[in-house]
Amino acid sequence: MATPIMGTAQVSAYQMRQFLRNVNPDAPDYSSLYLDIGAKYGVRGDLAFAQSIHETGYWQFTGTVRPYQNNFAGLGAVRSDVQGATFATPALGIEAQIQHLYGYATQMPLPAGAKVVDPRFGILEQAGLRGVAPTWEQLNGKWAVPGTAYGQQIVSLWQGMAQLPATPPAQEPDGSFLDLKDVLWAEPFIRQAAELGLIHGYEDGTYRPANPLTRAELAAILTNLKEKLRE
């Protein structure tokens, strides 16, 4: 059966990031960006996210494109010796990917207020390729060359997401985590921070205390603390 590029996402952000992190626990979480930007264009952000998993090797970037490029679908990486496009932010990279999908899927103009951020959008128009691939299966040989079964592989990844629970299990109300046995000295402090709502851990009930604190995580903690102080 053909799988439309346009439409409403059918899996949750939780299913998307859980599917990715089951393979790559250190992958960043841009699932909500995919859903939000996809909704802006009427493109299924959940399938675009599956495409990013396929293109980046579960966000491990095993090809020529590097993480700092914020290029999650190989835009412009037309040969194995070409690095492809670079975007200033993850949001711009995701919008460019979804915009390129939009260009293939429909001949409609961009949504009101949207600016061209896909460096290859004009190429689609010049080559008469706007609207030639309204389904993922029709991207075979177009997005990737030769690209045999390209769309089917992406749909298969999406089907794996759809089999996961749609929402996370309820977190223990006392701030417990499943993996604090190796940091018993820190456990009471971690539990207290969780009880105060400063930290939330991961969807699988772990805190992963051995992982280095990222800038994004620190920003989230400081934001939660600021809101707590306002109460």
UniProtKB/TrEMBL annotation:
Residue span(s) of domain SLH: 173-231
PROSITE patterns assigned to the protein according to its UniProt record, in alphabetical order: SLH
One protein family per Pfam: SLH
Cited InterPro entries: MGlyc_endo_b_GlcNAc-like_dom, SLH_dom
Listed transmembrane segments: none
Protein name: S-layer homology domain-containing protein
